Amino acid sequence: MASATNTPSASNGDWKAGLRAPPKDDRPQTEDVTATKGLEFEDMALRRELLMGIFEAGFERPSPIQEEAIPVALTRRDILARAKNGTGKTAAFTIPSLQHVDPTKPKIQAMLLTPTRELALQTAQVCKNLGKHMGINVMVTTGGTTLKDDIIRLSEAVHVLVGTPGRILDLAGKQVADLSSCRVFVMDEADKLLSPEFTPVMEQLLSFVPADRQVMLFSATFPMIVKQFKDKHMKNPHEINLMDELTLRGVTQYYAFVEERQKVHCLNTLFAKLQINQSIIFCNSTNRVELLAKKVTELGYSCFYSHAKMVQSARNRVFHDFRNGVCRNLVCSDLLTRGIDIQAVNVVINFDFPKHSETYLHRIGRSGRFGHLGLAINLITYEDRFNLYRIEQELGTEIQPIPAEINKSLYVAPSAIDEPAGQVPNSRSSAPESNSRSGTNGQAADAQQPRNGGTPTGQGRGQPRGGQQAPRGGGANGRGAAPQR
User: Fold this and answer.
1) Domains in the chain, ordered, with CATH?
2) Where are the beta strands (DSSP E) in 316-368?
3) How far is CA 90 from the centre of its chain?
4) Is the pTM of this model over 0.85?
5) C-beta separation of 69 from 81 below 8 A
6) Name one GO cellular component term (predicted).
């Protein structure tokens, strides 16, 4: 089997026979990803080695954004693409970027920029998975890591550079990263990358790449600043807009009116009643993230937390372990609202309701990934009521009052619907006495970092099957993720 997998010259009839594709994902999908024109990956004139990586990653056929963007991107035309969160944007630009790379030339030929470190790590892993048969070297670089390590890695051949703008500009400015052959320039979450904090850096980065570069911008929202960038730096871009509506069709949205002091009790009730595979719980400040994570652990549930003030190594570990199913619940700030794809997440809870519609849109997009089903539950105080109404109007969506019982078919895969709802709190008898202390490495209370978490699975956005598994043992407090009742 290994021979068939690694031999792209196999005959047309049997080259797929040796591929190690993941198990088929039988969860239903919405029209956000199924309403295609029937184009197949094999119709796109992609290299055999790249096709092998695509199918082994679990892709079956392109999503609408992939179907629209990839053929045009292969012609090296500039692209301005707008599509919903969780519909396959990452593959829409990584596939053509990899196709353009010549692995025989030891130069950086494609640069993929993201606004956050976690998204950079995820995007790099997608590139590695898709290009694993191509002989392409992918490097990820972000702030929070040592510059010395990056310099050492850049002394060897790197074909695709993925990272955050500030770090890449630092490397280019020091003449460590040679971008003179980089003719593919991709901006993921482009609206964020063109915000005032990033715009000067983006302008400088463009000066390091060739004039005949291909520029591709992908995002779910495009404010006016994107048009200004397009007019200045893009050449007759092909514009794609698949945003007939802003929110994902598979995400059902509810609100519950609560007093501030009742929020933790309400969250505990949701944990008991819902059939949660994995959940992300959002707070509006880093202090509230740590306080809530501590409360969740005191209730006995497995919990990680993550926010921007944590050291990068702790953030990476939490992200990897949560993605690998080590823990069931993650409390976080808006650090993880953009692009992060964890397909096992079927419930998002806004413990604190956001003030802006764009933030709300990105938060709830962490569930219902790639056309699957999910829940978004908002805990609303009296002060939030005007924001609730305004966000509904701005997004053209309806957030309904939460019913006494939520139909499982709205957010649970059919094969798992018969399982009982609720999480079982971890055994109190084994909880250490110092459980009231707040952790500093992304784990609630005094939990130690799990040792069985490895590298991320690398199953990026736009993956039709082979989604994440339910959480395994080894939760945040070392006693295992909470099993379902």
Assistant:
1) 2-241 (3.40.50.300), 251-430 (3.40.50.300)
2) 329-332, 345-350
3) 9
4) no
5) yes
6) P-body
